[in-house]
């Protein structure tokens, strides 16, 4: 395809409220199974909040943290914990993105609990989990992604469900 023949529009998959609700329900179920009160945030590809649920007994700081994790994962197309994972995490001292979280004060999270939502290879949003330890937040976040995968596989679509997602 030459430059003059290039498409000027892209067909995109859009995350809808129904998908966000499905993911939240799966995340809550996993949270209850592992006995941790979590806050779950789902954002679209632009980092805009679609749905948020703070479980009973979850920390009052959870909504802001979960939203920041989801925003970061969607916007940077990677799981948030990968920013500071040794040895090449880009936000580690001396690496290329050291201090990146200061560019978006209160909106950018570089610790565990945020995962991009990747459908058929395209980042369509992010999920942020806050309230447990890293292992718990990861289990809850991947449960949300797995629920979306189970729902979309009937339509022949794929969802990345592993914890370490980088697009």
Briefly, what is this?
Keywords: Coiled coil. Residues 10-37 form a coiled coil. The protein has 167 residues and is an alpha+beta fold.
Can you offer a commentary on this structure?
The protein has helices spanning 17-33, 62-76, 134-152; strands spanning 39-44, 49-54, 114-119, 122-130. Helix 1 packs across helix 3 (134-152). The radius of gyration is 16 Å and the shape is globular. Helix content is 31%, strand content 16%. It is built from 3 helices and 4 strands. Strands 2-1-4-3 form a 4-stranded antiparallel beta sheet. The model has no long low-confidence stretch (mean pLDDT 95).
Q: What is the averaged pLDDT score? A: 95
Shape: globular
CATH class: Alpha Beta
Strands across the major sheet, in which order?
Answer: 2-1-4-3
The CATH architecture category equals: 2-Layer Sandwich
Counting DSSP H or I runs of 4 or more residues, the number of helices is 3
Distance between the termini: 24 Å
Secondary-structure-based class equals alpha+beta
Helicity level: 25-40%
Instruction: Report the β-strand fraction as a percent range.
Output: 15-25%
- The beta-strand count equals 4
CATH H-level superfamily: Haem-degrading domain
The run of helices and strands is HEEHEEH
Q: Whole-number radius of gyration?
A: 16 Å
**Number of individual domains:** 1
Give me the CATH fold name.
Answer: Beta-Lactamase
Protein name: Heme-binding protein
Pfam families: HbpS-like
Coiled coil: 10-37
Keywords: Coiled coil
């Amino acid at each position: 395809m030459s430059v003059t023949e290039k498409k000027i529009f892209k067909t995109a998959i859009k995350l809808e409220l129904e998908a966000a609700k499905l993911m939240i329900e799966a995340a809550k179920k996993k949270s209850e199974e592992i006995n941790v009160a979590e806050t779950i945030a789902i954002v679209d590809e632009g980092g805009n909040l679609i749905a948020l649920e703070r479980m009973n007994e979850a920390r009052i700081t959870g909504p802001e943290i979960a939203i920041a994790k989801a925003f970061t994962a969607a916007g940077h197309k990677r799981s948030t914990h990968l920013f500071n994972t040794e040895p090449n995490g880009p936000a580690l001292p001396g690496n290329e993105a050291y201090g990146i979280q200061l560019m978006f004060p209160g909106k950018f999270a570089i610790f565990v609990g945020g995962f991009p939502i990747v459908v058929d290879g395209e980042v369509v949003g992010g999920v942020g989990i806050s309230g447990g330890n890293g292992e718990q937040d990861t289990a809850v976040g991947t449960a949300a992604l797995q629920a979306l995968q189970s729902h979309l596989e009937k339509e022949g679509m794929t969802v990345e469900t592993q914890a370490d997602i980088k697009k």
